[in-house]
Structures are given as structure tokens and as C-alpha cells.
Amino acid sequence: MKSLHDCSIKRKMVVMTLLICGSVLFVAISSLFAFQILNFRSNYQRDTATLAAIVAGNSTAALAFRDAAAASEVMSSLQAKPSIESAYLATADGAIFARYGKEVRAAALVRYPRSGEFLFQGGRLLYTQPVVLEKKRLGTLYLSSDYGPTLRELLEIYVLVILGITAVSIGLAMILSGRLQRMIVDPILRLAETAQAVGERSDYSLRTAPSNRSDELGRLATSFNEMLERIEDQDQALKDSRERFAIAIAGANDGIWDWDLRSNQVFFSEQWKRIIGYSNDEVENTIAGWEALVHPDDLGPNKALLQNYLEGRLPSYQAEFRMREKSGRYRWILARGAAIWDSDGRPGRMAGSLTDIDGRKEAEAEVQLAREKFETLVNSIDGIVWESDAETRFSYVSRQCERILGYSPEQWLAQPRFWQEHLHRDDADRAIQAGRDGIAGAKPYNCEYRMVAADGKTVWIHESGDVCVGRFGKPTLVRGVLRDITVQKHNAEQLDGLNMQLVEASRQAGMADVATGVLHNVGNVLNSVNVSTTLIHDKLHESEVVSLVRLGELVRQHEGDLPAFLRDDPKGKLVPKFLVQLGEQIAREHQLLSSEVQHLTRNVSHIKDIVATQQNYARVSGFIEPVAVSSLVDEALLLNRNSFSRHGVRVIREFSDLPTTMTDKHKILQILVNLLQNAKQAMADSERGDKQLRLQIAQSGPLQFTIRVTDNGIGIPAENLTRIFAHGFSTRKSGHGFGLHSAANAANEMGGQLRVHSAGSGTGATFTLELPLVLCDKQPKDKYEP
Length: 786
Description:
This protein has 786 residues and is of the alpha+beta class. The protein is 53% helix and 21% strand. The strands form 5 sheets. A 5-stranded antiparallel β-sheet has the order 2-1-5-4-3. Strands 7-6-10-9-8 form a 5-stranded antiparallel β-sheet, sandwiched between helices. A hairpin with a 5-residue loop joins strand 8 and strand 9. Helix 14 packs antiparallel against helix 17, helix 15 packs antiparallel against helix 17 and helix 16 packs across helix 17. The chain is rod-shaped. The two termini are 139 Å apart.
């Protein structure tokens, strides 16, 4: 059976009419019925009271004279009233004097009401009537009447009457409603039929029949048609919008979602589901379906973000989270949306898009990994890596600034002039100008200056910058590194002091080594000088000049007769011959002495050259100057020339042409003198007759040259090769073990090395000096010829 809601409006009108009429009739009949019941009870009470009064009046004589028979006769008259079940006449003292109906004890009379009152009880009416004679109460009459049969008869009559009235009323109502409802229902039915047709066919061009009525139904029909016209226009616009929307959805890679917040209905487009690998029917269009796909770690934060937006705490909704694909893998999604609020400020609808950002997230992860690697690499650099624009506005500073200066990158970047304001006041102008010059010239630059750290300490900084040039040749970015060189600066100061001491010690050691060589050379020359002076002394001691003196004394004795003496005296005759012989002898002595004096003069000049060379070498080393390598080797040979000549050493020079190099001339000379002396000593100890020393100069690389000193002396045993440069090690009893050690250290100080090679004892040795070749345009001032 259909409920009333599902019935037609005509039936609803009939039911409504019947319900109204039935309700009215029910109220009226119920009221009438209640009135009749009340009236019946009132009449019944009155009749019973009248009957009781009559019986009581007739019983006064019987009670007065205590005539029981008369009293019973009076009570029997109640048989005329079938409804009277029982009656009792009691004396004034409560004893039953006469009765009608069933017999009871006097105690049972207590259930009756007081005199003159009624009591309805169990379908019976109980009444108590006093018996009074001349205002003296003689006794009491008790009546019990069964009013049920009488009431039922009356009710049967009432029911028949009510049914008749109801039937007539319903029939009349049906007739009247059937005629009158068409005036109301027909227009409504026509509206309903039109609305049903519009709903079934979605044809908003249909219209209900126009009405000439001016009442509410007529206005309703007119408004309904006008509404259909507006809906038709809106439907067409909606169709156009949906077509455009469908085209947009089909052409876009984003998924679309729509959420009716009032009904909690959700729509997910096919592309929305396709993004995570599902077909259209594999995902429910419900909030629960969406929640089941969101990563558990992202669901809570995303719902909180959405709630904050819907409650007005966020201006827009945009969230990134992961959703589970059909394969089980999670894909990164970007959701954006906007809501529409009603007049009460409550969100009614929300819609938005779903974008696949998994590729972007992977790229971001790779970029983040690269950034982390970059940060790790940058922070591992012992310096502050920075980037700024051409105006020295920093855009990046590495974390090393915290360690070096005590400032965080955030503090640095928050102040546009942080770098300028933390420069040492004595270096600020120079440091700023160096950066400007580098940027203006669009070329790398270097600068050293001081900065003030967070703890107030001064930090020495070495800045190296590189300028990036844009498309139009203008500087756009500057990148560089600020290295902390405070320790180096302090060490350099200490090193300068140590260098001064070392230079002095080196100079003294060099002077000692050179002095030793010079003393050997000068000693050799002095031997020749000694021989010459001895020879001259002997010649002068044995000279015939003494005979010439004696001859002069003889001539002075014969000064008066000198001609006769020469002509006649036997001794005098010998004088001319003696003079000739003496002249010849003196000439020979003069020639010999002149030769010895010339040799002595040459030896003295050689000693002066050796001393001058020693004085030139004794200058402080450490000065970098242009040097011709071949001339420097010849200068070393010059210092040992006489020693080589005395020991019969043949020198072989194999010099390649080398460009002039910038180096420490005196350190190289110290090394060469030491090597040449050791070679001479090794050859002297070998007692070979063919002593040979080979000197070679060659360029061993683009920026390197070598000097080799090879001798054919006693050689070096294999066990000594590893110790030859050790301090204090020497193979000679008189050696101090300092020469080769200092030579090796000097080579290292110049960025080179000193190596030795020997096949063993008796095979000679080769010392190779490798040094950097630093080209220069200047020519050396001094040049020595071998």
C-alpha cells in the first residue's frame, strides 16, 4: 500500500477532505456522546433519587411504628424498577429493618456513600436516602441500581445515529470535494505533468497551459513558465559551459574534482583517476575513496590544511601529497582548489584540479641531492664560497663563514653591506677597490685584506674572485672564495724571522764551504807562488851581481890608473872578458827572474780573482734574479779550475741552450761548488790517471731543467745511496756530512730536487739537480766565460 506521500495530489485532496470532515465529525460526535453520557447519568441520578425519596416517604410510618411487614411491603414495590438490584432500610441505629434483593449484613452498608450522595461503582449506582419524619431521622434507605442495560440500550441508539450521520457526511463531503477539487487540483496536476515531462526528457522548452485565473494558482502557472524559460536559457548556457569544460578537461593533463559540502557528494574526473593508474569505475567517487589512496603520512597534514582553508584561516588551498597508484607505488600529486561560501559564510561547494608532479618531485630530489653534494663540497672547501652581483650584493655565502668569522650566512645575507662594514678600516678601501677593478675588467682577481670577526678578532683573508659576463659583455655575477690566511700570515712572519736566521746560517755555511774551496785553490796557487819566490830568492842569492860589486871595488881602487891597470895589470886584463861573461850571466838571470815575476804576478792575480769570486758568492742568498744557467755553471768551474788542473781532471762541457730563468743564483752556486768539490775528491781518491768530469745542462720538460755532474771517481756503494743526503753522513774521515744535506735542502727550497746515481764502488757517480724553469724577459747582469 502506498504511503500518503506517494499518492497523487487528487487522492491527497480526498484524503485531506475526509480527514478534515472526519475529524470535525469525530469531535462533534464525541462531544455529543459525552454530553449524552453525562446527561444520562444526571437523569439516572435524578430518577434514582426520586424513587428513593418516594420509598423513604412511604417507609416513615413503618419505621415509626416498627412495622416490619409494612416496611417489607413498601420495599417490594421496587420490583417495578428492574434496574434496582437491592435496597436496604436500616433503623437509626444501623440495623437492617427491611430489605429488597439479596441479603447482606449491616457491616456491608459501609460501602454506600453518605446520606444524599451518589457513588458510581462497577456499573452500579449506589445511593443513600435518609428517612425523616417531622425533621427527625428515623432511619436510612440504601439503594443499589444496575444502570448497565439501560446505558447499553441508549448507546446502541447513539451508535446507529452516529453511523448514519457519518455516512451521510462522508458522502456529502465526497460529492462536494469531487466537484470543488478540480478547481484546485487540475492546475496543480497540469504543473506536475509538465514538470514530470521536463524532468524525464530534460526538455526545458515545454510549457504548462496558460491560465486566465488571477489567483495564486494562476500566478504559479505563469511563474512556472517563466522559470522554465530562465532554466532553458541557463541550461543552454550550462551545456555550452559543459562542452567547453569537457574540451578543457580532455585537452588538459590535470584531473578535475568537485565536492558538494552540503551533500558530501564528490566527483572525480577520468583524468583524475587515470593519473594514478585507475579506470573510471575502479575508484569510488567518495571522500573515503580518496582518503584510502592518500599516503598515511600525508593524509593528516592534508586534511588539516583543507580544514584550515574551509575555516578561513588560509587564503587558498594548495597541497602536495602522495597517492597510491594501482601498481602500489606512490606518486606525488599537487592538489589545488577553491570553495564557494554562502551568505552565512559557510562553504557550500569546492572544486579544483589534480596535477601529476611526480617527475618534478624526482627532479627536485635530484636537485636537492645535487645541492646537498654541492653544499657538502662547498662546505668542505677551506674557505668561504660566495656569490654576488656586480654591485657586490651577496646572494650566497657558504657555512664556512661561521667557522672563520663567527657569522651565520643568514646574518651575512640579511645586510646588503655586511662585507663592506666588516672590513678592517685600514684595508677597506683597498679591498673594495680591488673587487671593483676585477669586476670592471671582467677578469679574475686576488686580494689580501683583514676582516673583523664576531668576537672582535682580526682575520686575514685571501680573496680570489672570478667575474661572469652576460650576453652583452657586462659583468653579471661574481663568484669566489675567501680563505682564512691568518695562520699563514703569522707563520710567514715567524718564517721570515727563521728565514733571516737560516739565510745567515746558510750564508755562513756557504761562506765556509766556498772558503774551504777558496783556501784549497789559493793554497794551490800559493804553492806556485812559494816556488817562484824560492827560485827568485835562490837566484838572487847566487847572482853574479856580487862579482860586479867586487869588480866595482877593484875599479875604484885603480881609479887613477885605470887605463894602465886594464892594459898592463894581469887582473886588469881579465876585466873586459869578465864583464862580457858577467853581462851574459846577468842577462840570463834577468830573463829567469822576469819569467818568475810574471808567473808570480799571474798567481797573485788569480788569488785576487778567487777572493773576488768568493766575495761575490758570500752575499745573502734568497734573492730571485734572472740567471743564465750555463754562465752559472762556468762560474762554479772557475772556483775549482786550479784544483782540477792540479789533479789532472779533464772537464767535459755538454751545455744545451736554455732560456734565462728566474732563480736563486747563490743557492745553485752553493750546490754546484759542493758537487764539484765532492767529484774532485772522489776522483782524487780513485788514483786513476784519466780523471774525467762531465757537466751537462738540458731542458727536461716544458718548465724544468737539469744539471748533471758525472765523475769517474770511486763511486758510491749501494747501501750509502739512501743515506748520502742525510745530515751528518760522510764517507770521508775528515768530512762533516753537511755539504750534500744542505745542497739537497736548498734544491727542495727552490722547488726542485737533488738525486744521485751510482752503479757501485769504482764506477763513478752522477748527481742530477732538477729545478723549475721560470721564464723571464730580462737578461742576467753577469756572464762568466770558462
